[in-house]
Design goal:
Strands 1-2-3 form a three-stranded parallel β-sheet, with no helix packed on it. The protein contains three helices and three strands, in the order αβαβαβ. Helix content is 51%, strand content 13%. Helix 2 (49-58) packs parallel to helix 3. By secondary structure, the protein is an alpha/beta fold.
Amino acid sequence: MMKSFWFFAQFLHVFLVFFSTLIASVAVQAFTGAYGINYGRIADNIPSPDKVATLLRAAKIKNVRIYDADHSVLKAFSGTGLDLVVDFQMDT
């Protein structure tokens, strides 16, 4: 009787560790890429577009909105795997 109890307890422990690890990895994958930033460049003392692209990849931010089609920004973000949205303002 005691052996079966310990077997059950060990099995339950292994199952709970496996299940919680599985749930944690799914939760992280579901959250990754679910947020983003707006990258405005009208300011003083801002980092270069190359540096910004590196910082965003390090922070695992995947979605970026930019407000113009500046060549230096597009070149810095090309090939990085970041999803860009270019927002154009219509003058009417």
